[in-house]
Write a structure and sequence with these properties.
By secondary structure, the chain is of the alpha/beta class. It folds into two domains: 7-140, 3-Layer(aba) Sandwich (Rossmann fold); 155-293, Rossmann fold. 36% of the residues lie in helices and 16% in strands. It has twelve helices and ten strands. It has a ten-stranded mixed sheet with strand order 3-2-1-4-5-10-9-6-7-8. Helix 5 (79-91) links the parallel strand 2 (69-75) and strand 3. The radius of gyration is 19 Å and the shape is globular.
Amino acid sequence: MIADTKITIAVSARALFDFESENEVFREADPSAYCALQASQLDVPASPGVAFHFVRKLLALNANGSNDVEVAILSRNDPVTGLRVFASTRHHELAISRAIFTSGARPHAYLAPLEANLFLSAHASDVKEAMTAGFPAACVYPVSGLEAAPDDEQLRIAFDGDSVLFSDEAERVFRLRQLEEFNDHEARYARSPLSPGPLTPFLLALSALRNQRGSRVRTALVTARSAPAHERAIRTLMSWGVAIDEAMFLGGKNKTRFLAEFRPDIFFDDHVPNCESASKLVATGHVPHGINNETRLVLH
């Protein structure tokens, strides 16, 4: 698999900035109170949201006049609220010039003309619609008061494997046949690459960027797999021409403490319990894909 070095991220205003207090007055049937509150604060820059540090570090990779990274705002907000959003990007010195404000209309249709490699939103239904349309997407946990990411220049991203980077074919074996048969199955198919998962296009674009920027981009695979099921995951990445900096095969051990050591600017997982635990410590995106998301309603 070969990816262009250009990477484009679409992010909702609520994922980029902390609009949680404003969101408390939002009513989908009548958003007038929310719009009025935002209009009264057009000159008040919003505080950073959960995806802010991830976006800031991505944009910082555009060094020496390059434009390999682009971030566009794709938001359900109305254009007047968009004035505050752009004022906030200027205040925080984020080089963002493209934005689409839909006044409540579904935004995912604009991902194709934006040529987005990833869509981040705090609106779960928008994320699901984006994924149904074939776009990599994740629903961020908009946690106010989240500890700021380390103030350095290295962009760090952590991914779960099955149902995120890979399809859920192996996860289905585990859920239906349990651990012993899962390990036997994965050992038997160790040299057969897994099918791509929902975030594979983003990983490929990120990998191409990583090849150019070297140590400025660091990636980690953080998975519940353990030996002997580790081999198929690594060989799948090799077959895609993707190099991961760190691989953690945790055998079902809670991921949060390991993420605390890696300190990602964002972490992606399909398991709601994993996301809920990790989101207390690091920026987290839930990827609503695969068997683990078929039998429960996920609300954010």
